[in-house]
Amino acid sequence: MQLNPTEASPSTAPPPAASGTALAARDSGRSADLLARIALVLVWSSGFISGKLGLRHSSPYTFAALRFAIAGAILLVIALVSRRALPRGRMLAHLAVAGVLVQAVQFSSIYVGMDLGVPSGLAALIIALYPLTASLIAVPVLHERVTRGQCLGLILGLGGVALAVSEGLHFDGDYLVGLGFLVLALLGISAGTVYQKRFCQGMEPVSGNAVQLLAAAFVALLPALFAEGFDATFTAGYWPVLLWAALVNSIIGVGLLYGLLQRHGTSQVSSLFYLVPMVTAGFAALLLDQHLGPLTLGGLVLATAGTLLASRVRS
Predict the structure, then answer these.
(1) What's the rounded Cα separation, in Å, for the pair 17 and 34?
(2) Ramachandran quadrant class, 293 (left: phi over 0; alpha: psi -120 to 50; beta: rest)
(3) pTM score, whole prediction
(4) Where does the chain have alpha helices with state H?
(5) Which of 103, 226, 240, 273 is the most buried (most CB within 10 A)?
(6) Rounded distance between C-alpha atoms, residue 134 and residue 230, angstroms
(7) What is the rounded CA–CA span in Å between residue 284 and residue 290?
């Protein structure tokens, strides 16, 4: 008896239950991915607030070194207790380089810039250029494709960011050095995330982040000791800010960033950073009683539209 080729074999027909399970898993994955994106924006935005508050009690490199050391030590203990694989050889070196760029260069430079008088909104604006710079680096290094729709979304996002932080923005000679450090921070996160995606794929998240944070702590410790004299005042108000920066900003924030980079293109993930200045302004309004004007609200709408457009395009 011959089997009619137009009829599906019982062994090849997908079980309805399996199809339903697959759809449920896919929907769950999308929900988890959306929550990860929202959490990344919230956590990263809070870093500007914690940094500004931390500079009231500590010099910038000292604050950065303590932040990285605490977070790195905690992750290293977790990795050893849970017997996770420790990176070795080339992977160890690659992780250290990425950690120095993303953590030490970026955040230390942000702290120095704000300490020299650059407002947190302006600092967030400069770092919000990261989607453009990272995408430009990713094209030749990672061979990622940036479409016209994605470019349009990036441009809209940048326009929204510029509009949002334009209120109360002033430039004078006192900002020049601080602005230079913010540009250095921008180059650090742009090069670091592309380097991470190129050379650190498949890293063990706990031990890998521990290596990166400890490498960043060592680099930040040098200017903290020799240029600042390890200047910090350990008051009751300093510890919550320091621990938030170490546990939430360094561990959770960077973990979310790397997790999204492993699943998506650099252009998609970096476009989320267009939302950081506006969310930072919202935190400042709630925590520091700062006024949100019409330009800020208009920029929020424009940047959100640009981010959604850029994120919908697959790299």
Answers:
(1) 26
(2) beta
(3) 0.80
(4) 16-54, 60-81, 89-99, 106-115, 120-127, 130-142, 148-164, 176-199, 205-226, 238-243, 254-263, 266-270, 276-288, 294-312
(5) 103
(6) 33
(7) 6
Please give the DSSP secondary-structure letter assigned to residue 13: S
Q: CA-to-CA distance for 143 and 111, rounded, in angstroms?
A: 33
Which residues are within 8 A (CB) of 314 and not within 5 positions of it... i.e. 6 or more apart? 265, 268
Residue closest to 58 by CA, chosen among 285, 289, 246:
246
The pLDDT tens digits for 20-65 are 666 666 666 678 888 988 999 999 899 999 998 999 999 999 999 9
Angle between helices 148-164 and 294-312 (to 10 degrees): 160
Distances (CA, A) of 112 to 9, 162, 256, 261: 68, 22, 25, 27
The DSSP 8-state label assigned to residue 169 in this structure reads -
User: Angle 254-263/176-199 helices, nearest 10 degrees?
Assistant: 50
- Contact criterion met (CB below 8 Å) for 51 and 225: no
Picking from 260, 199, 210, the residue whose alpha carbon sits closest to that of residue 82 is 210
In the numeric block, the tokens 């940036």 are attached to 146
Q: At what angle do helices 130-142 and 148-164 cross, to 10 degrees?
A: 150
Residues whose CB falls within 8 Å of the CB of residue 72, separated by 6 or more in sequence, listed in order: 209, 210, 211, 212, 213, 214, 216, 217
**Which two structure tokens, joined as six digits, stand for 94?**
């690659």
Distances (CA, A) of 52 to 63, 171, 252: 11, 19, 19
Would you mind telling me the total number of residues written for the chain in this entry?
Answer: 315
Q: Cβ contacts of residue 143 below 8 Å, gap of 6+?
A: none
pLDDT digits (tens, 9 = 90+) for 75-97: 999 999 999 999 999 999 999 99
